[in-house]
Amino acid sequence: MVLDAFRKQKNAAAQSEPENRDIPDDIWSKCGRCGEILLNKDLIKNYKVCQCGFHFRLTAPERIQMTLDSGSFREIDAGLLPVNPFALSDYAGKLVEARNKSGLNEAVVYGEGAIDKIPVVVVVMDTNFMMASMGTVAGEKITRAIELAAADRKPLIIFAASGGARMQEGILSLMQLAKTVEALARLSEAGQLYITVITDPTTGGVSASFAALGDIILAEPDAMIGFTGPRVIEQTIRQKLPEGFQRAEFFQQHGFIDKIVPRPQMKETLAKLLTLHLQGEK
Amino acid sequence: MAVILEFEKPIQELENKINELRKFSREKGIDLSTEIAILEKRAGEVRKSIYGNLNSWQHVLIARHPERPNTYDYINFIFDDFIELHGDRYFGDDPAVAGGIGWFNGRAVTVVGQLKGKDTNENLARNFGMAHPEGYRKAVRLMKQAEKFKRPVICFIDTPGAYPGIGAEERGQFEAIARSMLVMSTLQVPIVTVVIGEGFSGGALGIGVGDRILMQEHAIYSVITPEGYASILWKDSARAREAAEAIRIIARDILELGVADKIIPEPPGGAHKEPEAAAAMLGEALAETMDELMKLKLEDLMQQRYEKFRSIGNLK
Predict the structure, then answer these.
(1) Within 10 Å of residue A88's Cβ, how many Cβ atoms?
(2) CB-count burial class (<10 Å; 0-12, 13-18, 19+) for B77
(3) Can you give the CATH number for the domain in which B168 is found?
(4) Is position B316 within any domain?
């Protein structure tokens, strides 16, 4: 099932806004866990992690800036625009809104870059664009990234975040799950490394396709992951879910996550893993 | 007691009238054959006009009809010496997914299918056809077994989605579905998937990656149920009918969108009216598709499978 997270989008936006409307939110942010009001310029220096450990969600440009060598990123297919296959007017409106909110053409940004001078293909999903749901164009961009990694024999790193498949594209978005998975099968056959980094939230069809299939699966602390969103589960079983259910720590305990990596250590952890997979001796 | 759908009532009324006349004619010894013939002609026309112009929601109702043949029915009608095999070898046996081996058209095949119940009790036992991770892992086990013994695989899709529950999440529903798709995308034997009822979400696609996707005439396939779509996007699940039209879920649409390869006709009114005839039609389409696939060289089969999904949403 898809996209409980769609509904949470509003809450997430509220999270990062201070309660007091007199404080402009481009200067301050309020921690979603401890409630601390933080100066944005301090927050960004600390990888947008609060002292209490809460990881704010990142935009795609922020993620790229924090992870890749400075100036190394070259975006590919930035101009690809989403399609509206069934010409739904409410979807058309949402796409415009999403573009304005995120400054992106789609929820998926991909390209080539380097981490500690090791060339990589990287995919970043941005929840500011319709909760990073995967429609045909998002699926196409992810597939192209996977194919590029296979063709250029480069490691692939995907920072997953998504409410799931984009419902407004019906069967076509569902099929993107299969499309990305098939491309990954070929990447794996080509012997290339694929690292998944699960970020908050990774649910629905995205969790159940490429995000689940990394050779190595890392996650940010407290990131929500799961196939069915918590609200739908609660409605189905008619009981409250336990604290911490479907969080990264929960899934590490249950054997589905290799390692939880706090954001300030993400780049060095990726660099170590990439180096361990370089051909030849150190 | 047969379940009559609202839009079928005009047909049902005519049929009842015809039966009454027949009974009356027999009991009283009066010849009413002219009147009966007129009514039968009328019933035929009404049937044609109703079933020829079904809207998406009416397809949904037929696809979910409680008497619609399920995976077991088709297995019984179509395959010989079928032996069901149970369990995922890790945790348990999912009653929402059936699998096994049998003869089809002179060939040993592996069959995997999502399984709804026929009544409330059976549906409760089978979670209404909603699989747990064990279901997908059983499917993977049986498909790898098929590959080892070079048997083609046939998958029947019939589910509103994967099971949304604590245990299912804990045991990695997302991983189970992704893994199953991965295994299917590289499986070195032909795979035919058939949507026999409803196919929704990754829960359906979890056993849906194949060389050909067939859909029965009244089957439906999409990313989410119309109810789910309406409740998430419009906060109003009562608008499900509208959602069913908006996101195009019926077999004809899925064929037009380039996802389904073939539509399998059903008896008038739907498979539940004549299950055996429906099974014969399904068997015929399956045989034809399977023959096509068996002729392909393995590398062509694999390349075509890749391209089938690769081309969906290809922008160039």
Answers:
(1) 17
(2) middle
(3) 3.90.226.10
(4) no
Asked if residue B41 and residue B150 are part of one domain, the reply reads no
Residues B288 and B201 in one domain: yes
First to last CA, chain A: 45
Q: Which domain range does residue B148 map to? A: 60-310
Which residues partner with A177 through β-bridges? none
Using DSSP bridges, classify how beta strands B97-104 and B107-114 pair: parallel, antiparallel or unpaired.
antiparallel
CB contact under 8 A, B202 and A177: yes
ipTM over 0.90: yes
The domain boundary residue, chosen from B53, B75, B91: B53
Residue with tokens 């035919």: B192
B83 contacts chain A (CB < 8 A): no
Do strands B220-222 and B191-200 pair parallel, antiparallel, or not at all (unpaired)?
Answer: parallel
Pair B242, B159 in one domain: yes
Inside any domain, residue B74: yes
CB A171 within 8 A of CB B254: yes
Confirm or reject contact between B302 and chain A (CB < 8 A): no
Strands (E), A11-107: 28-30, 37-39, 74-76
Hey, which residues does B199 pair with through a beta bridge?
B159, B221
Q: Is B214 left (phi over 0), alpha (psi -120 to 50) or beta?
A: beta
Task: Quickly tell me which residue has 């089969």 as its tokens.
Answer: B301
Taking an 8 Å cut-off on Cβ atoms, the answer to whether A182 and B305 are in contact is yes
Mean pLDDT calculated for residue range A225-242: 92
Amino acid found at A43: L
Assess if residue B125 is contained within a domain. Answer: yes
B-interface mutation test, from A137, A182, A252, most B Cβ less than 10 A away? A182
Q: Average pLDDT in the A178-191 region? A: 97
- B267 secondary structure, DSSP code: -
Query: How far is the C-alpha of A178 from the C-alpha of B221, rounded, in Å?
Result: 15
Q: Which helix (H) or strand (E) holds B201?
A: helix B201-205
Give the per-residue pLDDT at B296.
Answer: 98
CA–CA gap between residue B149 and residue B141 (Å, rounded): 13
Q: What are the tens digits of pLDDT across the range B260-305?
A: 999 999 999 999 999 999 999 999 999 999 999 999 999 999 999 9
Structure tokens at B20: 């009454």
Q: Does the residue B113 lie in any domain?
A: yes
- Domains located in chain A, CATH noted: 17-56 (no CATH), 57-276 (3.90.226.10)
The answer on B158 and B190 residing in a single domain is: yes
Rg (CA), chain B: 21
Q: Give me the amino acid identity at B257.
A: L
CA–CA distances in Å: residue B141 to residues A126, A215, A258, B111, B206: 36, 21, 24, 12, 13
| Across A259-273, average pLDDT | 98
Residue A54, CB-side half-sphere exposure with 13 Å CA sphere: 18
pTM of the model: 0.94
pLDDT of residue B2: 78
Please report, rounded to a whole number, the percentage of residues in chain B having pLDDT higher than 70. Answer: 98
Tens digit of each residue's pLDDT (9 = 90 or more) over A32-75: 999 999 999 999 999 999 999 999 999 999 999 999 999 999 99
Taking the CA of residue A79 and the nearest CA in chain B, the distance in Å comes to 12
Q: How far is CA B165 from CA A13, A248, A274, B180, in A?
A: 28, 18, 36, 19
